[in-house]
Amino acid sequence: MTLPIKSSICNYCITKHGGIGAAQTKPECFNVNRARLCRNHLAKCPNFREYVDNEEVQRILALSVPEDKKKCKKSSDDDNNEENNISKR
Ligand SMILES: [Zn+2]
Is the dihedral of CA 79, 80, 81, 85 positive or negative? Predict the structure, then answer.
């Protein structure tokens, strides 16, 4: 089974509700496909905490997400260009 679009549904919500189709009908399970927002969801997702040990929950939530620092930049190429310009000076 392949998904037509890249999944932006919380895996734990999918498991909880028995399928991606069911999870898609629940706004609280649906994430914009960004790691930062996904983590925000996990922080309050009861299903995530249900399926994952509390210790693991804390570890995952403590992970730094690269997108947090990029301020929603879509292209990493821009960052590379900026770095190149700085290094030339
Ligand atoms: Zn969830």
Answer: positive
